[in-house]
User: Fold these one by one.
Assistant:
Number 1:
Amino acid sequence: MPFEGLRDFEVMIGLAIITVVLFRRLSLPSIIGFLAAGVLAGPHALGLINDPHQVEQMAEIGVILLLFTIGIEFSLKELMRIRKLVFLGGGAQLLLTIAAVAVGSLLFGLTLNQAVFAGFLVSLSSTAILMKLLMDAGEMDTPHGKTALGILIFQDLCVVPLMLFTPFLAGQGDGWSGIAITTLKALVVVGAAHFSARYAIPWIFSHVVRARSRELFLLTIIFVGMGTAWLTALAGLSMALGAFIAGLAISESEYSHQALGDIIPFRDAFMSLFFISVGMLLDLSIFLKHPLLLAGAILIIVLIKALVAAGSVMMLGIPARIAAVAGISLAQVGEFSFILAQAGVKNGLIPDTAYQIFLAASVSTMTLTPFLLKWAPALADRFSKLLPKRLVRGAGPLMDREKKPRLSDHVIIIGYGLNGRNLSNVLKSQGISHIIAEANPFTVRSQKKKGLHIVFGDASKQEVLEHMHVHQARLMVIAISDAAASRRVASVARTLNPRLHIIVRTRYVAEMEPLYQLGVNEVVPEEFETSIEIFARVLRKYLVPEDEIDNCVNAVRGDSYEMFRGMSRRHSHAVGITGFLSGAEVGAFTVKKGAAVEGTSLRDGVLKTRSGATVLAIKRGEDVAPNPDPLWQLHDGDVALLLGTPDQLRYAGRLFEDVA
């Protein structure tokens, strides 16, 4: 009855609110709260839900929406760019996990078919849980985040073949002919998605957008996503796979960002129901009946999955630390394994008791995932110390061909994402020598073909930084998304070169203090810079003059960054002259025609009295005059190197501009 369905829904949401609030106060992830709410509401605990099947249907919508949004955030071009990671790394992980679990199961007395089926169940990881955690932590763009995503994509693509093989293992089904037919269907669906991405989706949305109706736009998004999932289900494929393909098609259009923003609230709401539904499956009494067996199963699953996944991506040449973090993050059983397990029960491949033990172990690994992600960096560091240096820095053919560069007084860029790419382009245009470290072997290979000075490896390792001549470098820019990795790179670089000037890009202001404690010279928080760009654009819309906007920007930057520098000075361990110059900066300024300082000599004191900055050197043409004579007269085009506080340099800069 509708009333009963509404009551069940209210019970679930109410329990979820209570448990999540409680778990958040204990600093535990929301996902664990949702799982706990499902356990309490389920038939094996309080029995508050009368019809768990309705919850499972709503939860399936959550999985569909998750895969749909992942597809929108991804792209076919990005998928092709990391195709080796997806197909080689993902394929190795799946096959090796199945083989390892099957061998272990045979030792416990299972038949060959049952052992292989057990490998099927363990080989899949949870896209829903892992992607949610990575997105919440802002780690989707990190090397380990992209590596895990590549493997998860391959696993999701293999759900259908594994489902087809399940009846085959039980001696039922259509055998190899049925598998071949379904594979052909999958290829047709992927081909149709590619056609839709280029022609159908842009045509549909171009007509919808003309109506200027947000409701119509949202309905179209849901129609495309759910419709594709339904069609793939009719073709005998996974609905989640169809939703992912629909998302990929939309990602290639200019409407992808708006579509993502509109669908995310629905995804988050239904995903909470998915986690609740997983918890409802669990019978807590199984922990009391078989505690040692369950503990052993959980430990074996986590170890096998972590080690196999890490080894699979290391075979592609990815550094050990990144591979280890990705492997640990994948060390849980996935939501699609529950669907496989139910098929196994129907086909007689798994007894009811073994099914409950599997459910308990699987939910336990899911519950452990937030903690494993938190511990992953430290565990990965310990794991890396046990391996040969060759494997730690990456052991692919790319590393074998790497030649040690000859560099001095150069810039080291860590990470070739958007920030690293833009910085590299600017440095190249200015003729400034630089070298880039990137942990993605496929990016390195493609950029090397374009002549870019880029090396492959984990920059938190001493060998990689020495390979980049960190001892002779003038400056290092750490432009990666992983805050923990940024701290490790900064710490190692500071140890190797105490004179190195280190600039770090970070996401949040809260991450600045730990970086300054490690001896970083400058930290640029995206959170702060974004706020400046926002208020500058707001002021422009109100037609505030550009010079006033610049004054506001300079004032905010000056005050805030002076506060940030205060953090740096508190943690400064500089000695000698560097310690005396703490808080001072050096800046270069070009004399413009008509500027206040043009035609004046240093003895006139215009620059010193009006700004307080000191002239260190002057460049005229190709000639450089260090510590210039007081009689030196500044001309149009001269470049002066000044020493002063940030405020002094800001005032001095105005004296070099055209006053007309």
Note: The first strand starts at residue 411 and ends at 414.
Number 2:
Amino acid sequence: MSKKKVQLGSIRRWLKEYRIFQQYRTRWLLAFVFVFLAAGATLSVPLAFRQLIDIGLTSQEVHRQFIYLLLISILLAVATATRFYYMSWLGERVVADMRERVFQNVLRQHPAYFETLQSGEVLSRLTSDTTLIQTLVGTSISVALRSLVMTIGGIAMMLATSAWLAGIMIVLLLVTILPLWAYGRRVRKMSRASQDQVAHTSAIAGEILGAIQTVQAFVREPYEQQRYQQAVELAFTVAKERIKTRALLTALAIALAFGVIVFVLWVGALQVGSGQITTGQLTQFVLYAVLVAGSIGALSEVWGDLQRAAGATERLVELIQARPTIESFRSDVSSVHSRPAVVDPCVPAIEFDQVCFSYPSRPADQALAQFQLSIPQGQSYALVGPSGAGKTTVFSLLLRFYAPQTGRISVFGKEIEAWPLDVLRTQVGVVSQEPLIFANTAMENIRYGRLEASDDEVIEAAKKACAHEFITAMPQGYQSFLGERGVRLSGGQKQRISIARTMLKSPQILLLDEATSALDAESERDVQRALNALLEGKTSLIIAHRLATVLRADRIVVIDGGRIVEQGTHSELLRQSGLYSRLATLQFSQ
């Protein structure tokens, strides 16, 4: 989707597509009713003042006029407070809906999407951009509607008071709209640029904080501080230009509006002197003129808010309307775990048939080239080869993070595209080399493998993964908070939490990426014994750099340059004197 296409009428399309007004029509209606009531009460004030001036403050009728003013003020207060409540509620609700839709769509994107979009930028759009929209919906719309009603009503009352003076003012006010409109377009462009810079700043901060240990280990705090400072200052420079433009817009609006009022007052004063209108009529006209001028000034402010919100909405619409590079249907999530896959035991568990794949960021380099591999059910296959050979790519394609350019991948005899994504991934368990630990308790980190698991099942999985002992040794045991990314755990402890999580999931296919690489010898032996029990009757695909961990694999597949160059058992491959033999010689001779 081109940027131009996203920009055209982004707010209008968003309102129409997500039915913001239809969903909450009752509250919108009530808010608009009280907006009109508040505007009507305000427009009644000049009438009361005209009566006060024309009848005189010493007249007996003055008491009735002050009671009238008091009732108007009470109505105005109630209407304004109620309007504020409903519009603020709508602002919060609309923004909450938008944040949910943005985040839901971002979660559906595949890894290629995040190769060019940083997570910090997404967070910026979810916070600062939605805040602008909240201001638009919760405040600016009601102010705009109220100001519009006040402008139209005020002009109507001015026409009724003095058509000649009103005609002069209307013509002059129309002249003031053109420069305001031109300036408003400039504010919109600058607002988009300002939001982009704020998002870039957030992305840099997120990257630095996510790698804080590396930053401190290399003593790069001054460098990162300078890099962040430069981004902040650039964002400030862009924001300063936006503020300057908007300030000029406000000044222009006020100067033009009140210049018109002063001119019309001069003409009105001449008419009072000649007896064409009364002093009360002129006072009424002036009050309506002030209300109209103030309303036009408020509309100019709202116009600036609208331009800023339009820029923010364009950025959010880009996230909402982004389509995953791999389109796939999903099953009923509630039935994923309860529905076993019906599998023919004679078909391979995994089959790659002449698969070719290049990453979107490196289209000229083939990560896999004519890759051909068939893994029977219940077998344990190991992928061995130098870094960059394509081993991790095999995992990514099996999980459908990417789709191959050519060739076919089948899982349990069914083409991978025919699987609902959630069902496919439910049957595949992954233990990565760098496990991710959530900022939660040990119990919930393991339960992430199967959310409906009981505490006893979680503890049993932890015992099998040799994690029970160190978890119970923590102050709160399984309720101990592990910190962001598991900062309270050692590397080996993180790995065992990850293994316990996968054990709890109990998938049909296991993808192990150096699953025991961070364990000491004793823990590795215990975990390997538990993994062997878990692997019984299941299919496993193991990435290994340490060849000692795959000696018992049913078959070892040697990959180099995205192609399979050797296959066989450990002893068979040693006799071939190929790449595996050279790797084994290097490792086992040390």
Note: The domain at 3-320 is CATH 1.20.1560.10 (ABC transporter transmembrane region fold).
